[in-house]
Amino acid sequence: MGISDKALGALIAFYLLNFKSLPGIYNLRVVRYFVRHGLLKEPLTGILEPHKYHSRVWFDDMDLNIHLSNSSYNKMLDYSRIELFCRLFPGWRTRHIFDMRLAQTVCFFKAEVPKFSKYTVTSRIFTWDDKWIWISSRFSIKRKVRPARHAKAIEGAAVPGSSTTATAMSSKSEKGVEEDEEDEDDIDPIDEKAHLSGPSDGAVLVPASPAADDSMADVPERLCCLAYARMVAKDRRGKTITPEALFRRMGHQEAYPGQWEEYRAFGMKMIEGMMKTGSQPADQPTVGKKLANPTRARI
Hints:
Radius of gyration: 23 Å
Largest sheet: 6 strands, antiparallel
CATH class: Alpha Beta
Helix content: 25-40%
InterPro entries: HotDog_dom_sf, THEM6_lcsJ_thioesterase
Strand content: 15-25%
Number of strands: 8
Low-confidence stretches: 162-178, 195-214, 289-299
Family: Belongs to the lcsJ thioesterase family.
């Protein structure tokens, strides 16, 4: 008995609505990044620069709560990190054969990514040591209303009594822009404080001042998830390539002596607490037998 036209149409519609989960789609999307950046001779993204990956929540990305599912976060992290590496390390799977191996991923969920909404995954290298490279990835969505604290900062940044202030406030009331709560994690601390200003003044941390305008363009996006990944570069023989040796091998250079170390030290402070997770408290007596840690990376 042949299948009816309605049943066939429903089946085709079902697969089209879930096209991102079809067999082979993951591989095709990953290969696309290598093909697109395979002929690069120089990096498109600097070691200290972020890369933004844009996507949208579709039917096969959602869970029973009708928002981006936990499993989809890890899939999108793969896409974002692979494209980041293709831009950072041109030819890393063709001319320069080495692997970027993942040892650990930690996700902190802050808010949902609603159904059918556009979102951005901002990934960057934010610190490293003599072996490991830490990648931060921030899932964020655009705000529709201005955060309350951000609105107050803009109001305080404007000169009291100036025409600019009056125009901005009147424009706000005319448009009926509501105020929303802003979480302190919505702003990337590296973007906010770690603008590396050069050796002339010796300052590494330069707080960013809010712009005195009322457009939504200067409003920070809402952070939905913050993910940290710990990775290591391995050559063909499985030998570790130290991060700074890898950076220089791929054509990256410091803008001034000590720039990378300043950036690295700032990022290392951000993860000190996470690195100490699982360590023995000072007031806890030592155990005679060393306990095995099943979560330790075998790399």
